[in-house]
Amino acid sequence: MPGWNASDMPDQSGRVAVVTGANSGIGYVTARELARRGARVVLACRSEARGHEAGDRLVSEVPDTDVEFGRLDLADLGSVREFAAWYPYERLDLLVNNAGVMALPYGTTADGFETQFGVNHLGHFALTGLLLPVLNATPGARVVTVSSFMHALSNIDIDDLNSERRYNRWTAYARSKTANLLFTHELARRTAAADSNVLAAAAHPGYSDTDLHTAGPRMTGNKFTERMRHLGSRTLAQPAENGALPTLYAATAPDVPPDSFTGPSFAGWRGSPGPSRRAPWTLNDRASERLWEASERLTGVVYEGLKV
Predict the structure, then answer these.
(1) Is the CB of residue 236 less than 8 Å from the CB of residue 207?
(2) 9: which DSSP letter?
(3) Phi–psi pair at 265, nearest 5 degrees
(4) Are 79 and 105 in contact (CB under 8 A)?
(5) CA atoms lying within 13 Å on the CB side of residue 228
(6) What does the alpha-carbon distance between residue 26 and residue 22 come to, in Å, rounded to a whole number?
(7) What pTM value is reported for the model?
(8) What would the pLDDT profile of 156-192 be if each residue is shown by its tens digit?
(9) Are 292 and 186 in contact (CB under 8 A)?
(10) Are 15 and 40 in contact (CB under 8 A)?
(11) Over the Cα atoms of the chain, what is R_g?
(12) What is the signed CA dihedral for 68, 58, 19, 38, rounded to 10 degrees?
């Protein structure tokens, strides 16, 4: 895959894709490039105003495209269920679990989960499970979950998934990104055992210039840290157009294997897509199974037909 870019994507005509967090950054570029190749794209976003603005911008960049907004707040399982019930199509070729938060001050979701674990993992776990029937009904469907190279900073603590004993914003972020990879590992394992047609893969954008880096300090009013992160992103990070390439590759390339992890090829930092290193604990069957069971219990979303 050396030198692979968005122009190398196969034609997506007739395919339907849902991209979470598609109003900005990696998510927006992912949605735009899928639309450019002919896919019908659902922008699954928390803010109706920003979602519609993104849709208008996408249409201005890719005229005559088929794009639709669907409200989805991953911090509220009620909203996740409403989105899944609203989903209007009989097929779903691609679900891109892209939305996320990073290094926020301690907080909880509408359902009482630590925010980073709740949004980055549990919201996407519930969404995927609720959309699984339509994914299973679509030949060649894929679920691509966006993790981070920073997952390597920490394994999950299965006995303290919501960081109730002790909270460190970066540790909690790393654990949520480890959870993304354990989810992908277990989903791949269970779909294989069930002879499902759904392919589960993961990707990460390396160090990319998006608003994700400044959200945490903005919430705490730390202007200095916000400015420094903004400066670092502008000077050291690759643009979102490049950061989206691993996701697009995992979503569309014909040779993507189940449970793969695609990232930038240069030190996992920047460059064209390639196989990415992952911490060994993200491939642990027992850990992924325990997280899966806990996630079903916490969200109330049971993956019927994917029991092992």
Answers:
(1) yes
(2) S
(3) -80, -20
(4) no
(5) 6
(6) 8
(7) 0.91
(8) 999 999 999 999 999 999 999 999 999 999 999 999 9
(9) yes
(10) yes
(11) 18
(12) 80
Whole-angstrom distance, CA of residue 255 vs CA of residue 169: 36
Active site positions, annotated: 173
Q: Where are the alpha helices (DSSP H) in the chain?
A: 25-36, 48-61, 77-86, 115-116, 124-136, 169-193, 212-220, 223-236, 240-243, 245-252, 285-299
How many other CB atoms are found less than 10 A from the CB of residue 99?
27
The three-class DSSP label of residue 144 is strand
| Crossing angle between the packed helical segments 77-86 and 124-136, to the nearest 10 degrees | 20
Residue 216 pLDDT > 70? no
* d(C-alpha 288, C-alpha 304), whole Å: 17
Dihedral angle over CA of 80, 81, 82, 87, nearest 10: 90
3-state secondary structure of 18: strand
- Please say whether the beta carbons of 72 and 127 come within 8 A: yes
Both tokens assigned to 39: 């896919």
Q: Which of 73-77, 151-155, 217-221, 298-302 has the lowest mean pLDDT?
A: 217-221
The per-residue pLDDT for 263 is: 94
pLDDT tier, 278 (very low <50, low <70, confident <90, very high otherwise): very high
